[in-house]
Amino acid sequence: MSISIKSEREIGLMREAGKILAQVHDELEQFVRPGISTKDIDKKGEEIIRSFGCIPSFLNYNGYPASICVSINDEVVHGIPAKKRILQEGDIVSLDAGVIYNGYHSDAARTHAVGEISSEAKQLLDVTKNSFFEGIKYAKEGNHLYDISKAIQNYAESFGYGVVRKLVGHGIGKNLHEEPQVPNFKMPGRGTKLLAGMTLAIEPMINIGTHDVKFLSDKWTAVTADGSLSAHYENTIVITKGEPEILSLTR
Ligand code: MF3
Ligand code: CO
Fold first, then answer.
1. pTM for the full model?
2. How far is the CA of 157 from the centre of ligand 2 (A)?
3. Could you give the subunit structure recorded for this chain (predicted)?
């Protein structure tokens, strides 16, 4: 297999998918508050996705049982929504969602504060989001993939944080997960050369403590090994000869 270069037509469809997904996240951000369950978020998210005529791509993907991955505090990613999991004031909650629009995918994640949060948690959210933007400074034709990875890691680690290694970003298009894998940490070599028309889901997962994660018995939920807080921020982008275009962002 190799990395697919998308045509203008395909990028147009992914642009639509991304625009819709950005709106899904904007609406879900308004919905997040203390007292709602992670299942409420999943239901609301699925409803919004379908209201745009899209398909929630995570639902039944490799058996994943929901449309939105909802991960609280030390949960890193892939939390499974449940009626009994209630958001509490002071929590941080990451929402990861994917949509399919006319056969093309977009994938994005945000981490939100639930009510008032600690300054430590606030800094984690800011650094995680900023690390994505540090990374995509290098997302340009002619650079190498791991230039992005290295920039994300260097930035996050300068705050003493751990960058998750067991889970990585990915190419995206007709499939949710395509080549190449997009690590958020330094790898030997330079990685593939970036070319205009490559579409990537770049998704730093950052822990206040060490980088290590473990998986719960539900086989999905990744949690930090040391119990520290974790945040996730992801967008689908397209590589160009100049600045990358962030497809899954409206503002
Ligand atoms: N954004 C997630 C990822 O790239 C997608 C979750 S897949 C699911 O890993 F199966 F959990 F839905
Ligand atoms: Co992803």
1. 0.98
2. 22
3. Monomer.
Q: Which residues line ligand 1 (CB under 6 A)?
A: 58, 61-62, 64, 69, 78, 96, 98, 107, 170, 201
Q: Is 177 annotated as a binding residue?
A: yes
Exposure class string for 159-168: b at 16+ Cβ within 10 A, else e: eebbbbbebb
Structure tokens at 17: 């998918």
Domains annotated on the chain, with CATH: 8-246 (3.90.230.10)
CB-CB neighbours of 154 under 10 Å: 15
Q: Tokens standing for 228?
A: 């520290």
- What confidence tens digit (pLDDT) does each residue in 175-232 have? 999 999 999 999 999 999 999 999 999 999 999 999 999 999 999 999 999 999 999 9
Quick one: which of 144, 57, 154, 174 has its CA closest to 109? 57
